[in-house]
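Could you join me in thinking about how sequence relates to backbone shape in a protein? We need material for that, and I hope you will provide a protein of your own picking. Once you have written the record down, we can walk along the chain together:

…
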Amino acid sequence: MTTKRDYYEILGLNKGASADEIKSAYKKMAKKFHPDISKEEHAEEKFKEILEAYSVLSDEQKKSNYDQFGHAAEGFQGFGGQGTGGFDFSNMDFDDLFSSFGFGNIFGGRGKKRGPRKGVDLRFDLNIGFEEAVFGIKKEIEIERIEACDKCNGTGSEEKDGLIDCSQCNGTGMQTHAQRTPFGTFTTKTTCRKCGGEGKTVKNPCSKCHGTGRIKKKRKIEVRIPEGIQNGAYLRLQGEGNAGERGAGNGDLYVIIFIEPHKFFKRDQTDIYGEVPINFSTAALGGEIEIPTLKEKGKLKIPAGTQTGTIFRLKGKGIKDIERGGFGDEYIKVIVRTPEKLSRKQKELFEEIKQEEKEDNGFFKKFKKVFK
């Protein structure tokens, strides 16, 4: 005769463990050795041991007898029943025990009554101009969404009080199933297919929405674009998404912003960048040039001897910072423009400059020495 292992040992517990400790240990061990998901060796045999141990230790009377007499108590009153090994599993709530597995009740779903679902969120991609993003603007968009039926006010019923208890689940939203298995009789609960777990059905469906309580509609919505919004940012319009089931809350509308490029400026967060050409005389002698800014034309002083590629910073002339306040900067790079066509007078002037450069070519003399 094979000697049975101690039930507390099977569940990894000490004798006298509490009901919560027993239940927790059972969940852990059952998950580890269930034949459908376990890769452990001899998982099926071990799972049977775990079920047997739990069926005894989870029952107050059986546990008391076992604590006093051990396996000998199986011959006493309180250990009788149906199923493999004489153990009765019909009163065990597997819906609760296996919900912690991460995939619901492995014997038929969680079977919990649910209320009407909230509406689904929607997305709308909105293209706006560079200046619109910089200064902010109001835009009107048109979307198609699901709204509550205006005939039945979202109930789905032709009559005002037309919702009745589901005839299949008696209003519980759940159906109970008993199944005999090699381990005994398992009782499972599943979501009612007829009412979808709500527990209510419509007696006379609304003629407009056919009992769904919702219809599709096109709707125009005003969207306020804040000053300084970034490319790829989104705006959440709460409650502007699809309507929920039978009066449940609406989803939200997310407007994703895409900004068109500017013909002159390039943007980096709150800073803007641009390039302007200047002529030789201004670069050499200095002067003042006109440059574009976000609001109006501006003036930029060019110091004498400015080299091509020099970058000037105009503080506070950039884009508003939505999060921290204040404004970014504008950066202007000057490019010294080489004239392609010269008049006779310009040629004469450049010849004179050329002659003077030959007489005062200290820099180029030093440069040549490097290669000697």
Notes: The longest helix spans residues 344-359. The radius of gyration is 40 Å. The longest strand covers residues 137-148. The chain has three domains: 7-88, 122-259, 266-358.
